[in-house]
Amino acid sequence: MKLLLSLILVMTIALNCCKSIRLDSNKIDYSKVQNQVGQQQCFTSSGQLPTGYSSSYLLLSFNGNYPTASGIQQSSFLESGYIDIDFVSEQLYVEFLLDNGNTKTRGSFWGFGGNSTQYVSVELNGSEYCFQQPLTYSVPTFDGLKYATDFEIGTVQCDMFESKPSDLGNSSKAYLLVDKSDCSLISGSTENINNTPSGYTLTNYYYYTPSSNPSFFQLPSICLNQPNSHKLKLKSSPVQLPKVLENHPF
Q1: Contact 45, 28 (CB under 8 A)
Q2: Which of 12, 100, 120 is nearest to 58 (CA)?
Q3: Of 119, 168, 99, 115, which Cα lies nearest the Cα of 140?
Q4: Are 146 and 162 a contacting pair, CB within 8 Å?
Q5: 192 Cβ partners below 8 Å, 6+ apart?
Q6: Rounded to whole angstroms, how far apart are CA atoms 69 and 53?
Q7: What is d(CA 111, CA 118) in angstroms, rounded to the nearest whole number?
Q8: What is the arithmetic mean of pLDDT over 50-61?
Q9: Low-confidence winner among 10-24, 31-45, 111-125 (lowest mean pLDDT)
């Protein structure tokens, strides 16, 4: 666990790899939240839970557990991008760049809980395609978070929460660090447990905003014009979905 958390500094230095986007939006009023060490400050009531959030992110996985069609398997990679989640309308958007050491994949993902449909736009062999699928991700909720302890990054006092992501079963334990002063997400991590091979993941959040931007849920014309859903039936399909949604800490 100490080794995992020490990687936060390394990933902070790699901030310039992320797509940094600042959004103007209405924020939750945390003016009455007092920064008290030794007790939970954030998410103590439904009024403190954001209706959505948007953030740039950097995700590093070293042999981390991930769900596959054949069960939990380990994977190492670096992924950076931008994520926007609307908890109320159950909508997801991710712009991502995944580097597994051999290949790099750039793409965009849209997920809609209302009609249980997802779209992924990727570049394949120099051409851009948009694929339509049944929704494979559920919109995350804060219900599974359990306050664990206080934590500190630099001089920032944080609440540490823990959970067990449902799609990872009992193979992983997840942690989430939240700034006590404004309840913004700072960092999430997972650790392989229960006799699975040793592995860790770490996700840092940058330019966090505690609300969603509706403009990101507008599909581009390429996804509205006969999406290539039939190509996803090929076993050899190279289409890659963003890893950040498979490793969400809550």
Answers
A1: no
A2: 12
A3: 168
A4: yes
A5: 63, 64, 65, 74, 171, 172, 198, 199, 200
A6: 29
A7: 4
A8: 95
A9: 10-24
pLDDT tens, position by position, 231-248: 444 333 446 789 998 877
Strands (E), the chain: 52-68, 71-86, 91-99, 104-112, 117-124, 127-134, 146-153, 156-163, 172-179, 185-192, 200-209
pLDDT tier at 139 (50, 70, 90 boundaries)?
confident
- Cβ atoms of 244 and 57 within 8 Å: the answer is yes
Return the SS3 of 235.
Answer: coil
Residue 66: predicted pLDDT: 87
- What does DSSP say about strands 91-99 and 104-112: parallel, antiparallel, or unpaired? antiparallel
Pairing mode, strands 200-209 and 52-68: antiparallel
Q: Name the E strands within 127-184.
A: 127-134, 146-153, 156-163, 172-179
Structure tokens at 180: 């006590």
Q: Smallest Cα–Cα separation from 241: which of 98, 58, 101, 116?
A: 98
Rg value, the chain, Cα: 18
Q: In degrees to the nearest 10, what's the CA dihedral of 194, 199, 201, 202?
A: 110
Q: Give the confidence band of 36 by pLDDT, cuts at 50, 70, 90.
A: low
Torsion angle, CA of 229/234/238/240, rounded to 10 degrees? 50
Q: Which tens digit of pLDDT belongs to each residue from 183-206?
A: 999 999 999 998 889 999 999 999
